[in-house]
Specification:
Length: 301
């Protein structure tokens, strides 16, 4: 009945397959299978109905394998107005309710990319923040000033950028994640301008409040110019259409929204972190002058 060959025979120098098969009358009626005879070792014929019966069951057309395990695949498309994350989550929730014990879920194609690579966002952001922190620590020769820059700029900018996926203007995908990582470096530059100028003002004798106020006022124009250049440079990505538009839209929307919201918070929130965390540069400078004068006196003596 399965039309599988069981042997070969040679005729006129050619090999032919031997395929035993029952007649059409039996194959056309499922119940007729039970009337087939099985030959026992004793030579007696026994009908199939004596040892078996028929049961109907719905099964996949074919059983495949995935990751060296028996598996079946589920194919689907994303409905208009939804996104891949929501569709995949719906399938996962349905699988938890339907699948019996012993079954597990694995991913292939775009679903695998979404689940496996999407979970690396937190790790990549953490590494990016660590690298920025170490670079700033070298630049400022301090571990406290980088904290002012990162705490006063980055969390607020990222929160503003993540607000866009929350209101469903875009989704969290590999392209928007690249935009978030890029945003860390761009928004940190605004904080560096204020912190570096405030430190210089302190070294000239100003107190922390006067120094950071002067820094935010004096560096306002460069910060706005940097922000405007970034927003205007990436804004065409927000309006682009056609093939591959979703990828460019995601990067553009994240950078434009993150820079706009992050700059506003930088000008008002970062000075507060500076007052709380920044070092008093004026006192350090006076101490260095006193040490230098003592050293000069010893040299002259």
């Amino acid at each position: 009945m399965s039309s599988n060959f069981v042997n070969r025979f040679d005729a006129n120098g050619k090999a032919y397959r031997v395929i035993p098969i029952v007649n059409d009358e039996v194959r056309s009626k499922t119940e007729a299978i039970l009337s087939l005879d099985i030959k026992l070792p004793t030579g007696e014929l026994l009908p199939v109905s004596a040892v078996a019966d028929l049961k109907w069951k719905t099964v996949p057309r074919e059983l495949g394998t995935f990751a060296q395990q028996a598996s079946f695949r589920i194919y689907g498309g994303v409905a208009p107005g939804s996104n891949k994350e929501a569709a995949l989550s719906a399938i996962e929730n349905a699988a938890k309710e339907i699948l019996p014990l012993g079954y597990s879920i694995d991913y292939a194609g775009e679903s695998r990319q979404l689940r496996k690579e999407g979970n690396t966002l937190i790790m990549v952001l953490g590494i990016s923040l660590l690298i920025v922190f170490l670079v700033l620590a070298i630049q400022f020769n301090s571990f406290r000033d980088p904290l002012v820059v990162l705490l006063g700029c980055v969390p607020l900018a990222l929160s503003g950028a993540l607000l866009i996926p929350y209101i469903e203007l875009t989704t969290i995908n590999i392209y928007s994640q690249i935009g978030l990582i890029t945003l860390i470096g761009l928004i940190a530059k605004n904080g560096i301008l204020i912190v570096e100028f405030a430190n210089h003002a302190q070294e000239l004798g100003a107190n922390k409040l006067a120094a950071v106020t002067e820094a935010a006022t004096t560096r306002l124009r460069p910060i706005l110019m940097t922000t405007a250049a970034t927003i205007l440079g990436h804004f065409p990505l927000v309006l682009v259409t056609g093939a591959g538009a979703e990828a460019r839209n995601s990067i553009g929307i994240i950078l434009v929204a993150g820079m706009f919201i992050g700059t506003i918070f930088t000008l008002f929130i970062l000075p507060s972190f500076y007052l709380l965390l920044a070092e008093k540069r004026a006192k350090l400078m006076l101490n260095e002058i006193q040490v230098s004068e003592e050293a000069l006196q010893k040299v002259h003596s």
